[in-house]
Amino acid sequence: MEVLDTSIANVALDHISGGLSITTDQATWVLTSYLVANAIVIPISGWLSDAIGRKRYFLLSIALFTLASLLCGLAPNIGTLVVARVLQGIGGGGLAPVEQSILADTFPPEKRGMAFAAFAIVVVVGPVLGPTLGGYIVEYSSWHWVFLINVPVGIAAWFAVETFVDEPAQVKKDRDERFKNGLTIDYVGVALVALGLGFLELTFDRGEREDWFASGFIVMSAIIAAVSLVSLVIWELNHKDPVIDLKLMKNRNFALTIGVMGVTGMILFGTTQLIPQMLQQVLGYSSLDAGLALTAGGLATLVMVPFAGRLSGLIDVRLLLFPALLVQAFALWNMSHLTADIAFSDAAFARLFQAMALPFLFVPINAIAYVGLKQTQTAQASSLLNVSRNLGGTIGICFAQTQLAGGLQRHQSELTQTLNPLDPNYNDWMQKAAGAFAGQGDPSTTPLAVLYSQMQRQATMLAFLDVFRAMMVVVLVVAPLVLFMRSGKTGSAPSGGMH
């Protein structure tokens, strides 16, 4: 539910703005409010689950998310909807980290691969199916059902967790000892997390719309985020009972997987937004048809996930991670060679090829991240992994949109310079085009307008290709980090470097 909701509302913004009689820019706060609340809660969810009790916190998160979804669907105005989305983000922030820690504690190391394979289906397929499902809902029903669809699922999930999920005895014992010795609540840490990650998410999410640092609001937001995050690191490293255990970063495998997970999030969320956007802007697809181009990739992921889970329990997962990153780089290189005349099948196949390798990133990363960690550290580790994935996705989307805007202006300028009235080829084309339009009895269409439209289309396509190339470079830079991880065969103890 939570992963799906990060993307499902995107395609409903126009319908929400029309239904509530607001501007599209006002409607974007439906997305921003959720993402900010989510970004604040995810990093502290590990501490909250340890303090409240893992199962209890999981049930509270499901209940809040479900209730907030109901409020979103019934919201009569934008104010109520934004407040409900904040509550939904708070509830959703506790779902994925706690689910991961439950999987890590329930299954022995040699079986975690298959467990995290099931989790990977949700993480990878959710953002892919979100826009498509949202498109179907708003096309054949109303925007309210984008949120109401969560209610029956949430109720069923609550009863399933209440019935089947147990908390590990060691985690209970550790929590009892902490309360016996006097649990110190890190109020300063919580405040710094809220300010740092909240304003960081706000900066990235609103930056493009507000023209970045030309906006006083974005400048203020970025400064608050930077000061708060630096202060957070210093404070948490010296606190007896930190809300975020940054000392986990001393574990080499965990620190490196945080970096790789961030780039994986960038790839997943970045391309999930870029491909439909490219199809809509360059080829004129509807949002529903553009979303369908991602469906083949979602199906490929479903097919490959069991293989990734099985192999993660049998071999050194570094032997899966490194090739998977290289495949991602090649897939992005392939996308950077698409043309403005691509068929639907070309775009779908490009995504399918990329999506086939995604399970061999998500499953091994989650498997190797917990190697060498104590059972009482898994909740905090899960929180940091989810922060890395989501923050990587946010940065990836922000980076893509900024590069698109800059690339479009650059390519427009370059192409305009080639349109020289003194060039015989230019004049010849203009004369032929004018004759063709006159012959069709369409004097309202001018050759210059058609030429500008084609130039705009070509410049847009070139800007998309630039972004795919830039993402490929980022993947190639990060891929060697895998070589510095310790032995990643999850059924064995940590050992030396890769050999």
From TrEMBL:
> Where do transmembrane segments lie in this chain?
27-48, 57-76, 82-103, 115-137, 143-161, 182-200, 212-234, 254-275, 287-307, 319-340, 352-373, 462-485
What are the record's GO terms for cellular component?
Answer: plasma membrane
* Location of the Major facilitator superfamily (MFS) profile domain: 1-490
Q: Where is it chiefly localized?
A: membrane
The record's keywords, sorted A to Z, are: Cell membrane, Membrane, Transmembrane, Transmembrane helix, Transport
Gene3D superfamilies noted in UniProt: MFS general substrate transporter like domains (1.20.1250.20), Multidrug resistance protein D (1.20.1720.10)
Any one Pfam family here would be MFS_1
Q: What is this protein called?
A: EmrB/QacA family drug resistance transporter
Taxonomic lineage of the native organism: Bacteria, Pseudomonadati, Pseudomonadota, Alphaproteobacteria, Sphingomonadales
Q: Where in the cell is it found?
A: Cell membrane
MF term (GO), any: transmembrane transporter activity
**How would you describe this protein's topology in the membrane?**
Multi-pass membrane protein
